[in-house]
Amino acid sequence: MIRVLLVDDQPLLRSGFRALLDVEDDIEVVAEAADGKDAVALAKAHLPDVALIDIQMPVMDGIEATRRIAVDPALAGVHVVMLTNYGFDEYVFHALRAGAAGFLVKDIEPEDLLHAVRVAARGDALLAPSITRKLIDRYVTEPLHEAVDTVLNGLTNREREAVVLVARGLSNDEIADRMVISPLTAKTHVNRAMVKLRARDRAQLVVLAYESGLVAARHR
């Protein structure tokens, strides 16, 4: 059963999302919150698999709530997906850097919402390659700090290759095909790179790959 925490200051939106999620046999909404402060508290109390969190809220915004969840070892299993009205923007990129696994636009189609919750629960990033490129092109401007850059040099050649392919939006199966290895080995390369780079999930691995210069952003 996938346990979900809904966080938005609009009761109507929470009710709509709950109605969609609760009818599914494999999904259960375990709690709701109207601000980021309550979201963090409820995440600790219920340990959801997925937290759908609005970016802009009173008391504490979604970015700060995401950051607090991401740094808490007890909440390592909570995958945060940001909710936004505007698609990819500066807030979304800051949320990814804070530890979000991806983001959804609030007017998402019902079947896409269900798919997104299941993807996030598996620990995969909700970042399409085209969206990733636009985010990186627009918002990655700061160089990676020296400590992480040094760790990047500690990746093996195969791990670096796997990170590049993750940043280009490939799944583990697609990475395996490209590198001519088994899916399990591909997953191992990705996981080891995440550990070495201290990336919480694949979304942060994508951000690190671009910020470090391992993958070049395509500017237009």
Automatic annotation (TrEMBL):
Keywords: DNA-binding, Phosphoprotein, Transcription, Transcription regulation. It holds the Pfam family Response_reg. Residues 148-213 form the HTH luxR-type domain. One of its GO terms (biological process) is regulation of DNA-templated transcription. SMART domains: HTH_LUXR, REC. The modification 4-aspartylphosphate is found at residue 54. Residues 3-121 form the Response regulatory domain. One of its GO terms (molecular function) is DNA binding. InterPro entries: CheY-like_superfamily, NreC/VraR/RcsB-like_REC, Sig_transdc_resp-reg_C-effctor, Sig_transdc_resp-reg_receiver, Tscrpt_reg_LuxR_C, WalR-like. CDD domains: LuxR_C_like (cd06170), REC_NarL-like (cd17535). The keyword Membrane does not apply. SUPFAM superfamilies: C-terminal effector domain of the bipartite response regulators, CheY-like. It comes from the Bacteria. The keyword tRNA-binding does not apply. This is Two component transcriptional regulator, LuxR family. It comes from Micromonospora halophytica.
